[in-house]
Amino acid sequence: MSVSRRLLLVPLLSLPPIPAVPRAELRDRNGRLLGWTAPRSGSIREARDRNGRLLGTYDERTNETRDEKGRLLYRGDALSALILCRGS
Known about the structure:
Elements: H1 3-13, E1 24-27, E2 33-39, E3 44-49, E4 54-59, E5 64-67, E6 72-75, H2 79-86
């Protein structure tokens, strides 16, 4: 590897890792996965059932929970309730 190429790699390797926001899983008392919530983009989080089907989204900016078709369901975060009520 040439010296100039090695010098380009050193600054990239010294950057701190970008923290990933993990998905929050919801499980029943037996440990079976019911669904999860995960960040989507910006201030939006989404809820998915155990099969990965989209159940709805919550926007922190507007403080609204919407279903998979975009209909307003609740003012506030009700993603866990979506998973419990609509998850398969």
